[in-house]
Amino acid sequence: MTAESMPARVAALQRETLLRLVLKLDAVVTGVNGVAYLAAAEPLEDLLGVSAGLMRPVGAFLLLFAAAVWVVSTRHVVPRVAVLAIATANAVWALGSLVFAAAGASSPSTVGTVWVLLQALVVGGFAALQALASRPE
After folding, report:
1. In degrees rounded to 5, what are phi and psi of residue 79?
2. What is the pLDDT of residue 23?
3. Per-residue exposure over 52-73, b if at least 16 CB sit within 10 Å of its own CB, e if not
4. Which secondary structure element, helix H or strand E, spans residue 25, and what is its range?
5. In terms of C-beta distances under 8 Å and separation of at least 24 residues, what long-range contacts does 33-36 make, across chains too?
6. DSSP codes of every residue in 65-128
7. Residue 111 to residue 47: CA distance in whole angstroms
8. Are 32 and 69 spatial neighbours (Cβ–Cβ below 8 Å)?
9. How far is CA 85 from the centre of its chain?
10. Residue 45: which of 93, 114, 106 has the closest Cα?
11. What is the predicted pLDDT for the residue at 103?
């Protein structure tokens, strides 16, 4: 390895470390939400104003998505195409959350609307960080 290529290699390792961290954090946050939506759908329905019948399938989807994100984060080489798919899915989720909150599709309570908007912010942040960290050098 030449002296000139050392900074580029260090930068690439730092970017990969950041990417793995963001993916794992996304997986954990998404998984916790999925478990909560499945295990506590009725109490959350009262708090958020979103039906338990909607939260359960969303919770199941979130658990599957979290597992897939975790698997991608643990690959020897993190596949860029998978990260871009995850980032895209997160961006779509964030935009969908904004539409859901604005449309009042399921008549969420004020707390529910705030929760959906905060979730959109977090998931949108994951999407941005994932896209940024997966850029080619």
Report:
1. -70, 120
2. 97
3. beebeeebeebbebbebbbebb
4. helix 5-39
5. 33/59, 33/62, 33/119, 34/58, 34/59, 34/60, 34/61, 34/62, 34/63, 34/65, 34/66, 35/59, 35/63
6. HHHHHHHHHTSSS--HHHHHHHHHHHHHHHHHHHHHHHHTTT---HHHHHHHHHHHHHHHHHHH
7. 7
8. no
9. 11
10. 106
11. 82
Tens of pLDDT along 58-80? 999 999 999 999 999 999 999 99
Task: Provide the residue ranges of all domains of the chain, joining segments of one domain with +.
Answer: 8-133
| Length in residues, the chain | 137
How far is residue 49's CA from residue 29's CA, in Å, rounded to a whole number? Answer: 21
Q: Answer whether 108's CB lies under 8 Å from 101's CB.
A: yes
Q: At what angle do helices 80-103 and 110-133 cross, to 10 degrees?
A: 160
| Entry pTM | 0.87
Q: How far apart are CA 65 and CA 60, in angstroms?
A: 9
Q: Which residue has the tokens 């643990």?
A: 74
